[in-house]
Write a structure and sequence with these properties.
about 190 residues, alpha+beta
Length: about 190
């Protein structure tokens, strides 16, 4: 089930004369080259987030690596930011911060189910291939994701609120049914 909060990052490959890929991004009303990629943020107590990375390639050739497996661990290397600052090239090791990674749109979209449990920075590398050229790797992107934490608490609060609202609604309906059955009608 999708989370209530969704973030969309659009990635547009730019080809030079030698067919080398560079990236242009659009996120949260901003845009720019991959060298200036923004930190994606899940606010403190903001709950879980679904993060969608979508490739918009006019030639429909650039896909996330591993799409044909499918193997999301080839598409993204993501881990808690290490002290060395070195970013992972592949694999998903986040201590439960990212619950699920999946593909959509024939490998042109990657979904991260971000639990936003802890105040932690995740570093990651998005890996791509050219499906029109025997899935040859193309230029990767390596931005950061900042979780504010408290995702579980916000989800629990929402669940508790819904349960209380359901109990109160059920009690009101029960009172109305009993009043009607017993003939208690307003005069």
């Amino acid at each position: 089930m999708p989370n209530a909060k969704q973030q969309y990052v659009y990635l547009v490959p730019q080809r030079d004369a030698q067919n080398v890929i560079s990236w242009f991004w659009l996120y949260n009303g901003q845009s720019g080259p991959a060298s200036n990629f923004p930190v994606i943020e899940a606010k403190k107590n903001g709950g879980a987030h679904d993060i969608y990375f979508t490739v918009f390639d006019p030639q429909n050739a650039i896909k996330f690596a591993g799409y044909d497996g499918p193997n999301p661990a080839q598409a993204i290397g993501i881990a808690v930011k290490p002290a060395t600052g070195q970013k992972p090239k592949s694999g998903i090791v986040t201590g439960g911060e990212i619950k699920n990674v999946s593909y959509d749109q024939g490998g042109a979209q990657l979904l991260l189910d971000n639990t936003n449990k802890n105040d932690v920075t995740l570093v990651y590398t998005l890996n791509f291939v050219d499906s029109s050229n025997n899935n040859q790797p193309v230029t990767s992107i390596d931005p950061e994701l900042k979780n504010g934490g408290g995702g579980t608490g916000a989800d629990t609060l929402t669940t508790v609120s819904l349960v209380i609202a359901g109990v109160l609604l059920g009690a009101l309906i029960s009172v109305l049914i009993v009043r009607y059955a017993m003939g208690w009608r307003p005069r």
